[in-house]
Amino acid sequence: xxxxxxxxVLVLLSSLAQALEIQSWQTEQGTRVMFVHAxxxxxxxxxxxxxAGSARDGEQPGKARLLxxxxxxxxxxxxxDALARELxxxxxxxxxxxxxxxxxxxxxxLSDKAILTVALDTLAAVVARPRLDEDAIARVKERTLAxxxxxxxxxxxxxxxxxxxxxxGKHPYAHDPLGDxxxxxxxxGQQLRGFHDRYYTAANAVIALVGNVDRNQAELLVxxxxxxxxxxxxxxxxxxxxxxxxxxxxxxxxxxxxxINMGMLGISRKDPDYISPAGG
Length: 280
Description:
Layout lengths: L1 H13 L8 E4 L5 E6 L5 E8 L12 H8 L3 E2 L2 E2 H10 L3 E6 L4 E8 L2 H16 L5 H19 L2 H14 L12 H6 L2 H11 L5 E7 L3 H12 L54
Parallel strand pairs: 2-8
Antiparallel strand pairs: 1-2, 3-7, 3-8, 4-5, 6-7
Helix pairs in contact: 2-8, 4-9
């Protein structure tokens, strides 16, 4: 799954029409790297993908997403406001995203050495040294709870979550990445720090790099970033989901439209009958 996501990231970041020449290697710390040399624009795009999606929440739904949201609420010596000013003053973009499988941290910067150095150092602080200040945790919690309440009022969101629960039952994919009110309110800084220390590691990361740097420069950039992370261990593989029983679930919802979702588990990529895409 991660390999396919990284390839997609490379395609999206590169914005190239022609076929991509993807170079790949693995660092001594176990980080997989995929690199595309793209000198057309004086830019560098770098994405760090951790196997730290909401499927890793365990008994605390919402933990992975809450941590991912907190990465830009202060890192290293910079609180949230100082971090935002540091990025804006140099035209650097850093953003985060999360799915059930993966937690992303994306950086975009000019390839000018002075700016790129600051961008990389800031990115390293974001992924390796989030502050997790109490006021930031409270602020992001409240924002997440508001999103959760809004989702509960959306027939589409409710139907989507019902489908995931029907398909996956007790599997880690079943719960909403947003979490639930009880879990979110109980989460604290120590628990979030523990999740970060376990999953935001070099061995549990994949890096996608596209831009106006050559292979030697790319290796130096990656090495500098990876050295900021603890080596750690790759996350254990998730258990395969059990085949759900056929059935229909209905919910009366106060909405003017009816939402109907249908779904089934797809074939595993490891299944002998799976047909790989050309070149995949």
